[in-house]
């Protein structure tokens, strides 16, 4: 039987060393090169982590070639069809599906943590009204640790659990208030008799002056969006949360770092960028012109909502959300010309040599904005909505990391390409 190892030879010095290969339950094996520096005096260089696994994790699995996404082993399409967001939160955090009793207890716990400290309300008034809601999110989520000291003991399981519950429960309140503040409107308190998504829409759109009924189609669609965005392996924001948490920073501070990382248009900000792009295209007849730009290496324009580091096939979430977008528009009797442009753009791009060659398919962000527009959510809130769904992924990954046997601060190395050592020259001699 051949040994499950890989030998690395430094051809310059002739030194060589053997490294163990680790195999997970699915997916490619990894070479454990933790002792590379000790054995060969070298580091590896992999900007953008193209071939580097940063940790072991049992939470999510993606097969990018087959277009498969599993949450704790369950395929995303089965969860999207049969589960709901709070059950998915339980699954991701605790590692198994809850019994009926556990589900009821968990939902009850979450819906009783939805209020935020009154002092946190005052924070909003320090922001400019025209601030991007994600800017407000970064600030307010970061401030949570200033209000919830009692759950900051990261090595105490119950304390971690309370922080997780607080984050899942309070994120919709914080998000909805970011929107209401931008409009100069009153901040509705959460209503614990409503479902999770329903309560969020209530806080987004209700007024104290009249009764507000949440449209069940909109609530179901919001719940689906959160389910599909809940967790996604070691993406940029999740890796950010892990890296921040590896310094033993508290969970609120670590998650706020993730909110910042999510904001960028190459990550969670893409849903907002997709709508802006579709508006810019304006008409199906303009699609070829934008495709020419996307193909042009001298033009930095990219088809937003297309392409993914891991999926080299249709993103399974995009398939579900595309179908849901059609259903929501039909059920809510919304005629959105951007949906027609999006579908035509997808149809043309998927037949285009450039996109075929590079295996560029629509990702989850391509259609999620269409649904949100139909519900009445403004474009600037799309990434904020992503934050609500992804919080469970962040906090589950953080909790997984904190309970690993060996605790190490995340500390990448570098290939130094700066000046060689030189002597200081006094200013009078320069
Ligand atoms: N439009 C046009 N060309 C593209 C696109 C796109 N959307 N995405 C990738 N390409 C091209 C690149 O120009 C490159 O071409 P080249 O080989 O001729 O240089 C090739 O495809 C590979 O692209 P990379 O940038 O190397 O791929 P990477 O894995 O680093 O990037 C990313 C992935 C960031 C998602 C990229 O596809 C992109 O920018 N997409 C648009 C933004 C987007 O939709 N982001 C959301 C991602 S999903 C999420 O975070 C929830």
Total count of helical runs of at least 4 residues: 18
- Helices and strands: which structural class? mainly alpha
Give the cofactors and ligands.
acetyl coenzyme *A
Q: Compute the average pLDDT.
A: 95
Unreliable sequence segments: none
Strand content: 5-15%
Q: How far apart are the first and last residues' alpha carbons, in Å?
A: 66 Å
User: In total, how many beta strands?
Assistant: 6
Give the H and E element order.
Answer: EEEHEEEHHHHHHHHHHHHHHHHH
Largest beta sheet: what is the strand line-up? 1-2-3
The level of helicity is: 40-55%
Q: How large is the radius of gyration?
A: 24 Å
Quick gist of this model?
With 430 residues, this protein is mainly alpha-helical. It contains 18 helices and six strands.
Description:
With 430 residues, this protein is mainly α. It starts with a strand and ends in a 28-residue tail after the last helix. It has 18 helices and six strands. It is 50% helix and 6% strand. The strands form two sheets. Strands 1-2-3 form a three-stranded antiparallel β-sheet. The structure holds acetyl coenzyme *A (ACO). Acetyl coenzyme *A binds next to loops.
